[in-house]
């Protein structure tokens, strides 16, 4: 477990992905107060965020807006990635976290998606003892996860068998 600034971590990822946003003709909106220190495995948190960002880039449509928000509420930081476009059918919401599940197989083939990204998010967040989810909004989809933003070293969930 490391204590790191999630705002600068995500800002670096977004800066490195600038060309991808241009290629997709997507407008990025990044909203965060800096800094927000969280506990976690930096590599796993970066992978989680990158999965959400990649999904947003692959499914952005309509107004072509991707909005990244980081908010601290008490001892929790909530990181969300929203993209305008089609909502996820309600019957698929629970299944999207299952490895290899794809909502639209034809569309996923277009960009080479394998259907493992969200299962990695699920495993990572459960390992860190954090929450994650997805919300259909009126004009798109928001994926989110939380991280421990307290000043005390957190205890990981016990995964012994």
Return the string of H and E elements: EHHEEHEEHHEE
Structural class: alpha+beta
**Poorly predicted tracts of residues:** 105-112
Q: Main β-sheet: number of strands, strand sense, barrel status?
A: 5 strands, mixed
- At the third CATH level, what is the topology name? Heat Shock Protein 90
- Contiguous helical run count: 5
CATH superfamily: Histidine kinase-like ATPase, C-terminal domain
Second CATH tier, the architecture: 2-Layer Sandwich
Write down the Rg. Answer: 16 Å
- The tally of domains stands at 1
Distance between the termini: 21 Å
Number of strands: 7
Name the shape in a single word: globular
Q: Could you characterize the architecture of this molecule?
A:
- The chain is α+β, with helices and mostly antiparallel strands and 161 residues long.
- The chain has one domain (2-148): Heat Shock Protein 90 (2-Layer Sandwich).
- The protein is built from 5 helices and 7 strands; from the N terminus they run βααββαββααββ.
- The protein has helices at residues 6-16, 18-23, 42-59, 105-111, 117-128; strands at residues 2-5, 27-32, 37-40, 65-73, 76-84, 132-137, 140-148.
- The strands form 2 sheets. The protein has a 5-stranded mixed β-sheet.
- α3 runs antiparallel to α5 (117-128).
- Residues 105-112 have low confidence and may be disordered.
